[in-house]
Design goal:
The structure is a homodimer.
Chain A lengths: L8 H8 L7 E6 L7 E7 L2 E7 L9 H13 L17 E3 L2 E7 L4 E2 L5 H17 L13 H18 L3 H15 L6 E4 L8 E4 L2 E5 L6 E4 H12 L9 H14 L4 H27 L12 H12 L12
Antiparallel strand pairs in A: 1-2, 2-3, 3-5, 4-5, 6-8, 7-10, 8-9
Chain lengths: 321, 321
Amino acid sequence: MAVYTEVSDEELAAFISLYDIGGVLSVKGIAEGVENSNFLLRTEGGTFILTLYEKRVKAEDLPFFIALMEHLAQHGLNCPQPVRNRSGEALGQLADRAAAIVTFLEGIGVNRPTVQHCGPVGEVLAQLHLAGADFKGFRANALSVSGWRPLFDAAKDGADTVTPGLRDATAAALADLEQEWPQGLPSGVIHADLFPDNVFFLKGELSGLIDFYFACNDFYAYDLAIGLNAWCFEKDGSFNMTKGRAMIAGYQSLRVLTPAEVAALPILCRGAALRFMLTRLVDWLNVPPGALVRPKDPLEYYRKLRFFQSADKATDFGYVE
Amino acid sequence: MAVYTEVSDEELAAFISLYDIGGVLSVKGIAEGVENSNFLLRTEGGTFILTLYEKRVKAEDLPFFIALMEHLAQHGLNCPQPVRNRSGEALGQLADRAAAIVTFLEGIGVNRPTVQHCGPVGEVLAQLHLAGADFKGFRANALSVSGWRPLFDAAKDGADTVTPGLRDATAAALADLEQEWPQGLPSGVIHADLFPDNVFFLKGELSGLIDFYFACNDFYAYDLAIGLNAWCFEKDGSFNMTKGRAMIAGYQSLRVLTPAEVAALPILCRGAALRFMLTRLVDWLNVPPGALVRPKDPLEYYRKLRFFQSADKATDFGYVE
């Protein structure tokens, strides 16, 4: 949740004037997204989200994200739709940053996931995978297994200050995953960050997805592994089997997992837990003085990693044969 | 700018169901207001601001603020209008905090005040004073001259860590003000915090005022003194005489200052500078670890204080005889 960049009225008015959306009626920085500055923009033409891309998002990746949102929206997925300006551009410059306007999606992010959310989330993940199947863009997943060792190296010296033994345990988990990581599983565009705050519900129905700024090409089943990590644990750290079953069943209602995917799922779940633990650990150990954003707890994902280390088979966390 | 409190979907839905504004369509925490948590709320009935009052706002003051906003709106001032629930209450409880829903005001807060803003701001201050003249509520100004010594006592030991000599200079300024502070000037309800982010403009016209949570009963001319502090200095610390003239002339176009007010204005301006310097200094010296809000620079108001110490008469900062 953040607004990192202040935009002057003059800059904003000049930027908006390039679009066919009327004059600005109001603009509010919103506490949403940790990577970018987001503003809820009301103009004579409607309600929009204005995003300023901060340094953690690479400029060369932006066309991929924009094209993906357009593709998915055209293929029936309810997600923000980039608005093009009069020159046909969806990306511009504002306050020295790349900036885009997307349509506003009604709905409320989930803050307490329940079993009722997990089925629809599994389903929408499969829907996204199917809708993205003929998408032409490609973006490698910088945060897959080959990206974890550099993160570990950046964090290892401070790891034991977070909890004793974390360094050795993480080194061992990482070495195992580097050895075991599967190859050749069904792949395509994945969301790669489908956490509860990125899924909107309205009156009990899933109403849309946001935040495609980690989307990339990777194994479909890895996206499901991220979902199981993000949605199916209770606050006390325990895994909720009913949630796991609901999510996997929801996913399979649209796309049936192959035997190879089912076999790899425990490894992918461990990998997903390690990935979020590592990025959180790096953030945790590198909070700049005066930071406005409180880092997320890496130990939450250390506990999830340990759960998945104790799971041999996908049936241990909700797959039904 | 802050969202301090997380509200669960269930709590929110239950709270909203007490009102006749339809179901929730979306709710976004917004980066506005340093004292409370604010959410931009869209329901089937329209767009609103939902405010959760955090601990710095006293619960017993809330009925004053709510009644004042209703009174001012009824008297033609464009400001948020509290929405009453089906039981006729404008104040409720949400996530263990007092909470209110107010109407959403279109318009954009000013982030770079220009001369064109200062006239309308002076005018709206006078409009507020006139509109509030028959308001029945009363709230003493806890941050007037009698409230400054406790703030100074809380900050004095750390003052010189902010800039050398600040403690002695502040002590001297405070002692002078305690001696010279005027009595018996025309009084009534004042806004007491009319900073640029609390004044909305739309297409070059002042479109409304927000944030009445410092409003209180005090000298009208003290409100103007706060305005001169908040709007009429440049970023380099210099006082812009054209802005000062525009604001005072704007004010007097609706309410002419009495000779006693004109005579007292230099003291009131010094007082306003000291008041904001002291509250900022206390905040600066008491940033909690892990704070999400960056404190504002107290030295900005120390410089303003020194400017007004060098001004003998109101003509030195924009009053025209």
